[in-house]
Amino acid sequence: xxxxxxxxNKVSKTIGSLALLLVMVLLPLRVDNYVQNVxxxxxxxxxxxLGLNVIVGYCGLCDLGYAAKFAIGAYTTGxxxxxxxxxxxxxLPVSMLISAITAAIVGGATLKLRSDYLAIVTxxxxxxxxISVRNMSITGSASGLIAISRPSLFGIxxxxxxxxxxxxxxxxxxxxxxTYRIRHSRFGRALTYIREDEDAAQAMGINTTxxxxxxxxxxxxxxxxxxxxxxxxxxxxxxxxFDFTQSANILLAVILGGMGxxxxxxxxxxxxxxxxxxxxxxxxxxxxxxxxxxxxxxVVMITRPQGLWPERKQRM
Amino acid sequence: MALVEVNxxxxxxxxxxxxxxxxxxxxxxxxxxLIGPNGAGKTSVFNCMTGFYKxxxxxxxxxGQSLINLKPYSITEKGIIRTFQNVRLFKNLTAMENVMSGxxxxxxxxxxxxxxxxxKQRREEEKIRETAEFFMNYVGIYDKKDILAKNLSYGDQxxxxxxxxxxxxxxxxxxxxxxxxxxxxxxxxxxxxxxSFRDSYGITVFFIEHDMELVMKASEKVIVVNFGKKIAQGxxxxxxNNPLVVEAYLGS
Amino acid sequence: xxxxWELILQQLVNGLILGSFYALVALGYSMVxxxxxxxxxxxxxxxxxxxxxxLSVFAALGNIVSGWTGIILSILVAMLISGxxxxxxxxxxxxxxxxxxxxxxxxxxxxVSLVIYNTVMVMTNSQPMFFTSGLxxxxxxxxxxxxxxxxxxxxxxxxxxxxxALNFFIxxxxxxxxMRAIALDQDTSRLMGINVNRVIGxxxxxxxxxxxxxxxxxxxxxxxxxxxxxxxIGIKAFTSAVIGGIGSIPGAMLGGILLGLLEAMxxxxxxxxxxxxxxxxxxxxxxxxxxxGLLGKTEIERM
Lengths: 316, 252, 303
Prior knowledge:
The complex is a heterotrimer. By secondary structure, chain A is mainly alpha-helical. In chain A, about 75% of the residues lie in helices and about 0% in strands. Chain C is built from 11 helices and 4 strands, in the order ααααβββααααβααα. The radius of gyration of chain C is 19 Å and the shape is globular.
């Protein structure tokens, strides 16, 4: 393949992405609230998947409790706004900080151990978070927090679905930017080295425990941010929004989309958000959905462990 | 002065003695080889020197500092870089990305640099690329830089591993059976490469090898181990004529 | 009124029963982890399947045999079917990935778990099913004001018998030796003429049938089964395996019993809504302070 082809490829990719972005920006002018809400939901999953992708896709750590990370963000914002009447935007840094601290504690305890221990610890930790918020009065117990007030941005109170559509679109772009830059840097490459071969990564001078912890914290902070925005978009949050099925969905989106590849992860997340909507009215398929995903997961792991997104083309 | 001093090193795991009371020195700027029959404990010596195994007793001094109880990455930070007997590349990454991992040791951009991409970060990223490309060229795999490591031929995988080690600018380079699986021509060029590692970059080379012809041609000093113990050391000629060595290889 | 000692005694019995469930399930985790380093995420679902099979068989036997004979027969059938299921899972989903990165294997296990869980969910319409054993719940030994039922005693004895049998099998038979050999070094075992694939298959069969025993016991003890019953017990059994030292058979038993006891005491003194927090918190603490578990050995991986 010559230079022209390569350039061509890059140009067509850029044009394709820009066209897609333009469609996404203009879409709310043409579609109704229902469709906007479905797309909002898709973008919400994209944010979660992009965050988890840093942990699972880049660094190869198995996190089975990602829902807890966005639960922490959502509840931090919710509690600060409800019980302490904070402004939403001020709760964001606190939510990031608390996400980072909890991730540092959980990760610090387990990341130096065999990597599959992390899977079970994240699962256990997610249960701890869920049970705790269900049993504490400050988090509203089983019914959760209701009527969290809506924030304002540039003097506009964000109440309509279209507002949230654009807020989340901007967030998605930011998350893509952040995770793309991480991937294509010394730091991000170190994470992929760890994913590929931990011993060899150590032999190249990478402090694997430290880098794994960083990846875990970054993923948690991104999840926390998503959770904060989720809380004020939904205005109601309850423990049931953060159960294992939620964590499993996000993980499936990352893995089926193609671990580590940003476009794959985005498509995977969109698929997971939109697919149930398409079959909403056909009850049996709705119920069998996770069964189907389970089979798909096994088949993909056996036949295409690198995910469904195609490998990048390479010169031979 | 010796760059490495190994003093009374022993390494046991679950009843098996892999290395026993082993002592030797590696002179700075020398090319030394470690030979011995299969299962003599050669790779265990490497693993102790690079922190992958914890020595049961004894000491390893590098550049005046003890390496005992250091983690592999901090030993790498001190300048000891190794390759693996069974080639451990990052399989799903390109040859280029593999070699770039070597430069990790001599660069220091953090997560904030990654996000901000300030000029210093850009310069360093540039340096990482240039260093990696330079050494890929040096070992002769530059034209394969965009191929995924798992799709490279065996010989090219070995070369990629060498380039990766070199780009970490080692003071001491440990090669674990670098010639295994290479053809005759590739072995010839390996002898030259090993010499040029030292002559052009002042790298001290310590390698494990089974191919005696290569050992004789490439090394200045040979250490022979059997059952974890040192049975001889000296110039290739001295070792070749040592009856103990002959016995270890051929059996008595 | 109960005195504090009676409460403790009562919780001790409850804890032992709970602990023997955990131990039986933990054994499957530990054996599989020991032999192929897989955290078999689907193991809790195999336990759940075992409970459903036991319940269905017992209901079908209703007119022919009942009482303990019926229960034991049902448990044996459940062991057989779960064993076959465990083997099929291993053969179809895990064997093709034995050489693959461990993350792929782990994710496949999550996939298997989703498949079993959702199949049973759809088949049972998400409804719990009830198990009426017809046994007398009130018969038992009275100590002061507390009651230890015969059901509890029989269940404890039953789990004890199965654990002893497993211990004998692993320690004294050729097949058990082969399992231990593979856990130490797969390649060498293969060179020594051990049929590695067959032994791995056998490990899954054993582990799954023990989980089915626990499932059958849960039918009797709780009186109802539901598709999601395997999830929490799965995590807790894994916790038990880690507490005892993963890969260690006596460790799994010890860990299960310990966790059961601690949880029963925790429920008594902290309230039942926090009992899961207690168990998972303990897991994290164990991993921090004694990552190899109580009976586990530090291992050096050969490169």
